[in-house]
Design a protein that fits this description.
Elements: E1 12-14, E2 20-22, H1 31-34, H2 37-57, H3 63-75, E3 78-79, H4 80-86, H5 91-103, E4 107-112, E5 115-123, H6 125-145, H7 151-173
């Protein structure tokens, strides 16, 4: 089968007798679908997840592993329940993911001395090194995904994503958003 000479050129498709006949051009997303922001967010998110998954799987990790490591880097010791709540993650999924990270030596789990029912999770030095090593892969995946945007557009896009995320996070918590128009934190 021959490849098209240029994007949008008709492809040659073999017929059952072995000769080639012109086929339709690749399907494009119709304008009515491109007008649906929810679809665009879904499609971009799916592409981002696919690229990141490829990079993380080379390290035996998944997106939730990376997310938990990054959160622990920021928060320090935190209980499994607090992790699940802050990440809006099912408790059993969180437990399974933390167990994976503990087996890999990236986190340690210990009972809270003041409340033996609470299990606290802490990033280990090996987990910190793994997170540092993953930063290059995460950056490369983001660069591929955001290739059509220049540096200013990327910053603006990230700002807008954080603003939407903060709105959704506050909505989930039932609290008013503290993100002002323009993406900055509102003053108290």
């Amino acid at each position: 089968m021959r490849q098209p000479a240029s994007p949008g050129a008709e492809r040659d498709i073999p017929d059952p007798q072995g000769s080639e006949r012109p086929g339709p051009p690749p399907l494009a997303t119709p304008p009515s679908v491109l007008g649906l922001n929810a679809y665009l967010m879904y499609a971009a998110g799916k592409a981002a997840r696919r690229r990141l998954t490829e990079r993380l799987s080379a390290h035996g990790l998944r997106l939730w592993h990376l997310t938990i490591l990054a959160m622990l880097e920021d928060t320090g010791r935190v209980s499994k329940g607090d992790l699940a709540s802050r990440l809006d993650m099912n408790q059993s999924d969180l437990t399974r993911t933390v167990t994976d990270l503990e087996r890999a030596g990236h986190v340690e789990c210990a009972r809270d001395p003041s409340d033996r029912r609470r299990i606290e999770v802490t990033l280990t030095p090996a987990g910190r090194r793994a997170l540092t090593a993953l930063n290059a892969d995460v950056s490369a995946a983001e660069s591929e995904l955001l290739a059509p945007l220049d540096a200013d557009e990327r910053e603006r896009f990230a700002l807008l994503l954080r603003r939407v995320h903060a709105h959704l996070e506050h909505d989930r918590a039932g609290a008013p958003s503290d993100i002002a128009p323009g993406g900055r934190l509102a003053s108290p």
